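Hi team,

As requested, here is the filled-out complex form for the hypoxanthine run. I kept the field names the same as last time so the parser does not choke. Let me know if anything looks off before we queue the next batch.

— J.
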Amino acid sequence: MLPHLQEATTYIQQQIEQFQPDFGIVLGTGLGALVQDIAVQYALDYQDIPHFPVSTVESHSGKLIFGQLGGRNVVVMQGRFHYYEGYTMEQVVFPIRVMKMLGIQKLLVSNAAGGLNPQFNTSDLMVITDHINLQPTNPLIGKNLSTLGPRFPDMSEPYDPDMISQALDISERHNLNVQTGVYVSVPGPMLETKAEYKYLGLIGADAVGMSTVPEVIAAVHMNLPVFAVSVITDMCVPGKIKKVILQDILDAAAQAEPNMTLLIKELIQRQP
Ligand code: HPA
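And here is what came back:
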């Protein structure tokens, strides 16, 4: 695994010359338009990067984009890898590890999620303050790569408290009406039954989705501070549950996109 990470990193470094990304950003379902705000310097197709997985979902196009967002140097994953696509967890987090090896200081992750908290509405943003992993495995199973991080990484504070409070401050200033809450990750790809939604709410989750937690675990393992935010694309509380159609999820995500872009951009600008 480590030689593969090094090969991918070296290849990327050759392509991007002297460019040094300070922030890594993972764009979730329907949130790819943030890329339009980036002064792009380099765009690499995943398929050209050695050992990089290639995205199989049409709603996720696969590119690693380097440039400036809000005046800061970023690397953006346009398209991410999901466990339900059949990748191993190591493949799912491979790009996160590569971005760390490229020298990013912080990681920002977005996703689309179902709302379990009855106070939420479709197209709300939810800053993730904690998570529950209900996916059947995680990227740290197996021999520990001690050059990346410890065997038993602490998980008592996976989401960077400074970035959370800065995000809430930005939200207040711009009236973005951002929620906070616990994200639960499920394997997917099927959505949940009504009984499952009820269960997920009961165990303490505010939003449910099929991504993010593996990436966050890999980042925490590497001591990389993480910020994560969900767009609530459908409501999953009794009385509000509708048949989920991918287009509705994409539409709800698109509606939240301006707020998401503003939040991520200002958050990056505020980092020391
Ligand atoms: N469940 C799981 N994943 C999701 C959902 C959902 O309701 N909405 C968007 N991603």
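Two things worth flagging: The mean pLDDT is 93. The beta strands are 23-27, 39-45, 63-69, 72-78, 106-115, 125-133, 179-185, 207-209, 226-235.

Thanks,
J.
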